[in-house]
Amino acid sequence: DQQVKQNSPSLSVQEGRISILNCDYTNSMFDYFLWYKKYPAEGPTFLISISSIKDKNEDGRFTVFLNKSAKHLSLHIVPSQPGDSAVYFCAASGSGNTPLVFGKGTRLSVIA
Amino acid sequence: DTAVSQTPKYLVTQMGNDKSIKCEQNLGHDTMYWYKQDSKKFLKIMFSYNNKELIINETVPNRFSPKSPDKAHLNLHINSLELGDSAVYFCASSDPVLASSYNEQFFGPGTRLTVL
User: Fold this and answer.
1) Does A31 lie at the interface with B, CB-CB under 8 angstroms?
2) What is the DSSP letter of A21?
3) Do residues B10 and B112 lie in contact, with contact meaning Cβ atoms separated by under 8 Å?
4) Collapsing DSSP states into helix, strand and coil, what is residue A47?
5) pLDDT digit string (tens) for B52-71?
6) Which of B90, B94, B101 lies closest to A97 in CB terms?
7) Do residues B92 and B106 touch, judged by C-beta distance below 8 A?
8) DSSP chain B
9) In the Cβ-directed half-sphere of A72, how many Cα atoms lie within 13 Å?
10) What's the CA gap between A7 and B50, in Å, rounded?
11) What percent of chain A has pLDDT over 70?
12) Distance CA A29, CA A35 (A)
């Protein structure tokens, strides 16, 4: 049973346009939601997060939106750059030092 | 200066062997984790240690034994390796007091284990 789902295995976007990556979750006990970026042969790198008490968090070109009633979050990247090409993982956790529950990832390709 | 390091990066071995993967973090974090990324690309928690104490042990075969000699190290020992153990293993660490974002975890580069 997947508690965190990323239904799009891949996404292709032109440079300069907006990339929107989606994530759905089933566990209403999750308190924190995070996005990680992963390049081949490297570990996931933290990108941005949001707590369940907020509906938006912005950091530069990256914005995460949370819709708790729909159990849905999305990551917006604007403008997209070729260096953004990577696999993006959505993750969720409860409070405290609890492990992250990951989605399967979405491979983003930004085409110049 | 690497924050979370793992050795080796690649490990190829025969079925039935025993092997270890080492992990070290220099971030001063209290909590460390082992995750497994299988062939379907799912990243799943295996173990979690806080200050050298095991706090989470998911349904992992007891052939897998984590060992934490101090809070900066969490090693993974695997006995009697099986074909299905082939995966990428990631070590991670966190500390909610120090984290800039809630439950941000820092990951090592991964160890790709191939069992033949």
Assistant:
1) yes
2) E
3) yes
4) strand
5) 888 877 778 899 999 999 98
6) B94
7) yes
8) --SEEEE-SEEEE-TT--EEEEEEE-S--SEEEEEEE-TT--EEEEEEEETTEEEEE-S--TTEEEEEEETTEEEEEE-S--GGG-EEEEEEEE-TTT-SSTT--EE---EEEEE-
9) 8
10) 33
11) 98
12) 18
Q: How many residues are listed for chain B in this entry? A: 116
Determine the Cα–Cα distance for residues A73 and A50; give it in Å rounded to an integer: 9
Coil, strand, or helix at residue A2? coil
Quote the pLDDT of residue B55. 81
Residues of B in contact with A100 (CB under 8 A): 43, 45, 103, 105
Query: Phi and psi for B84 in degrees, rounded to 5?
Result: -70, -5
> How many Cβ atoms are within 10 Å of A89's Cβ, its own excluded?
27
Within 8 A of B40 by CB-CB distance, chain A residues are: 104
Please name the member of A44, A46, A98 whose beta carbon is closest to the beta carbon of B101.
A46
